[in-house]
């Protein structure tokens, strides 16, 4: 790597991340001129340091600090893989990861950027790789998959030690196969994407994919 990630520690210490209820994105408290926020989730925020751009620093919310060691251990089990970032270190509330360029599939949908079939196959292959490592590939959704040179890179592995299937990826894969051709290349309104996301968070595991898709089609008037 071209820079030592330790250059960022002082600036990172000025940032506090707080979680919110209802699965809402975290709140960031503090600021540092040499840090750029490049991602916000429900448990953590991710930053890039101007003097160490090859790294991504994932700062967990104070209430979620136990997840730092859990996720670091998951990366250790996954070892080097083309499907995931590299984890270099962890300290305090922070994971030090390789910075991965690309656009999330969530933003691809919003902007009308084409998502090739290879991305779907890459995620399928990544899930099989995770299972072979004795982990559980769950919580895979549009915001944690990057389109990177026509391939997929999955940027959040934090739930792979948890049991159960949230069916997020299964629903997305079916939707891609059945309906993506209707919107490929066309931007989808933010309000519609967010409505679907919130509906899934509320009902996703309690109704079938077919019923979920039917509700979306009726709501969005897609034929």
From TrEMBL:
Species this chain originates from: Ureibacillus massiliensis 4400831 = CIP 108448 = CCUG 49529
Keywords: Kinase, Serine/threonine-protein kinase, Transferase
Lineage, broadest ranks: Bacteria, Bacillati, Bacillota, Bacilli, Bacillales
Gene Ontology molecular functions: protein serine/threonine kinase activity
Gene3D superfamilies linked: Phosphorylase Kinase, domain 1, Transferase(Phosphotransferase) domain 1
Transferase in keyword set: yes
InterPro entries hit by this protein: Kinase-like_dom_sf (IPR011009)
Name used for this protein in its record: Serine/threonine protein kinase
């Amino acid at each position: 790597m071209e820079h030592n990630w330790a250059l960022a520690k002082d600036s990172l210490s000025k940032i506090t991340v707080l979680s919110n209820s209802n699965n809402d994105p975290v709140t960031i408290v503090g600021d540092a001129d040499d840090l750029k926020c490049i991602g916000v989730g429900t448990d953590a925020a991710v930053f890039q340091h101007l003097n160490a751009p090859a790294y991504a620093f994932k700062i967990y919310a104070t209430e979620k600090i136990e997840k730092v060691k859990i996720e670091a251990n998951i990366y250790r089990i996954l070892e080097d893989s083309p499907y995931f970032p590299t984890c270099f270190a962890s300290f305090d509330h922070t994971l030090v990861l390789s910075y991965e360029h690309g656009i999330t599939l969530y933003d691809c949908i919003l902007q009308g950027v084409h998502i090739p079939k290879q991305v779907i196959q890459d995620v399928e292959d990544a899930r099989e790789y995770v299972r072979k490592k004795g982990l559980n590939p769950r919580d895979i959704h549009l915001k944690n998959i990057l389109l990177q040179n026509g391939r997929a890179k999955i940027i959040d592995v934090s739930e792979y030690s948890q049991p159960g299937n949230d069916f997020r990826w299964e629903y997305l894969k079916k939707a891609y196969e059945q309906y993506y051709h209707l919107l490929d290349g066309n931007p989808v309104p933010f309000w519609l994407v967010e409505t679907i996301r919130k509906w899934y968070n509320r009902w996703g595991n309690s109704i079938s994919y077919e019923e979920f898709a039917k509700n979306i089609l009726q709501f969005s008037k897609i034929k």
